[in-house]
Amino acid sequence: MTNGLHTLALATPTLLQQTPVALPVSIDVVVVLAVVTVALVLFVLQPVSIDTTAIALMVALILLGPWTGVSPEEGVSGFSNPATLTVLAMFILSEGVRQTGVIQILTQKIESFAGDSEFRQLLATVGLAGPSAGFVNNTPIVAVFIPVVTNLAKKTGTSPSKLLIPLSYASMLGGTLTVIGTSTNLLASAIWAQIGPTGEPFSLFEFTQLGAVVLAVGTVYLLTVGRYLTPARITAEGSPTDQFGMADYLTDVVVHEDSDLVGSQVRELRRGDLDLDVFEIVRNGRSIVRGLPSERIHAGDVLSVRASQETLEQVIGDDHLDFLPELLDAAEDGYEPLPEGFVPEHHAWSRPSATPDPNTNDDESTERTEEAEDEVSLMEIVLLPGAWLNRRNGVAGFERDYDATVLAVRRGNEVIRQRLRNVRLQGGDVLLIQTTEDVLDRLQADNKIVVFSDRRWEEFDRTQIPIALGIVAGVVGLAALEVLPIMVSALAGVVAMLFSGILRPADAYEAVDWDVIFLIAGVIPLGIAFEASGTADLIATGIVAGSTVLTPIAMLATFYLGTAIITEMVSNNASVVLMLPIAVEVAGQLDVNAFAFALAVTFAASTPLLSPVGYQTNLMVYGPGGYKFTDFARVGAPLQLILTVVTTAGIVFFWGV
Questions:
Q1: Which of 20, 154, 231, 519 is buried most deeply by CB count within 10 Å?
Q2: Full-model pTM
């Protein structure tokens, strides 16, 4: 039966060509365009993650091979493509540099340099993030900078929102300095090697001069016009509960002896449609936050709860509970006793961190360490782009996996405080959580989460800094001098990181953003289909025929701006696979410099500035900055237009057209 299906697949194109109805284009082009259309819809609407769409695209192109021209070997070639392997290696090398603490040490210098000057804070943020992103993946750079910038802003009375969009934009612009600056650059290099006239990939510093101009212009813009366009969405004053607007949602209640809740488990409070969460129990002066769902409620317990006023009134009336503030007032007047073992400081939302006393003996120190591990903290965390969208159980699953209680979720400028159990988490969400110090340590070790705390940087082994920087310098040097291809030098650097002990194999696996790897591997066959089916040639012919009034330079600028807009709707890697073959075909038909058009597409796909979903660093700062969706267009649209002119002029100046 399999042989029969294969024979039918091979025979179908011939039969279609013999049909009496002549199609305006070949059936191959129709099939490829249909596949691309479906893929674009999935990329834009994202009913599934974009890496899932990319793999589905790869499978579809293979199954439709007689029309798409993609063989099974070519379909899976993305997994062995130099771009895919180099991106994978750069993720690991970036993690090696991060684990030495060198980035954290640099960020610590920001506070001493910037002080309470907003301009100097902005200058330090952009000045450090931009150049660094040319050699280290920008995702870990932004992940490290978010808590540092946020904490600095709050200490000095600056709105964190004024610094976070510039941080994301600077890291993107810095990625244009070298081929290894972004995964988009590496993918464009691989495609150029396949379809370009030279058959060679981009060299490491192929377009550094243009990247330096773009970064410089972007920096000046962010320090001047962009500074005034960037809104201050989050105030620097107030506790986390104030900033999340939790005053009307958090309170403490006391359980009566005759309450129906005595003896029941905390999870039973979530009965039916009741929107109430218990995030702490105080019993005999001791806070209980671990394993809360299975904890049984005792008479006299003080429950810290998150609920709306309507829900609280219902629970108070039905379950024989008292508001703690009212009970405290009654106790002060002598009408009611306080709950046994009640300690007022356990219900202060801003608890001081435990500071070890050097004069204590070992036993006391051990006891205090254990107490510190049980110390309850309110903390903000950011979920980095990744697999959160695929977790169907959302907040409830997060609480179960991490033994933490989620009190609120900030998504952009929207704060979700009710019906949290029904909320599906997304990359870029900021969670206000309450948990213990040891759980926070585990959260800080998770490379998909950023904790708004800079305590952990002291734990890095600084003696490894020269080794890690030497390895990265060796990778760059060998590639720059063309002693080794970029892929080989990067993989050699990974081996050096592992053998030197800077990274463990487990660290290396966790450092890789597998969503990006599968996305790149999945979309690479699309470029093959575009070329093999003649789709790129057909689209290029249509563009040239419909744009006869445009000069080559105007066409170059149009490709830059068009790619930038398409990148906002699909991923940057998908847009470069779609647009670069077309750009090269257009250049060939116009008899102009194909390399110039390839650069325009590459730079535009690497710098999507108009929305929080256009690039992962934008999504990373979306929640922490409390931005509206349109804030990115407000700041980014003028810069995108400026870069359209600057990049086009730079390409013409350096390479001609």
A1: 519
A2: 0.81
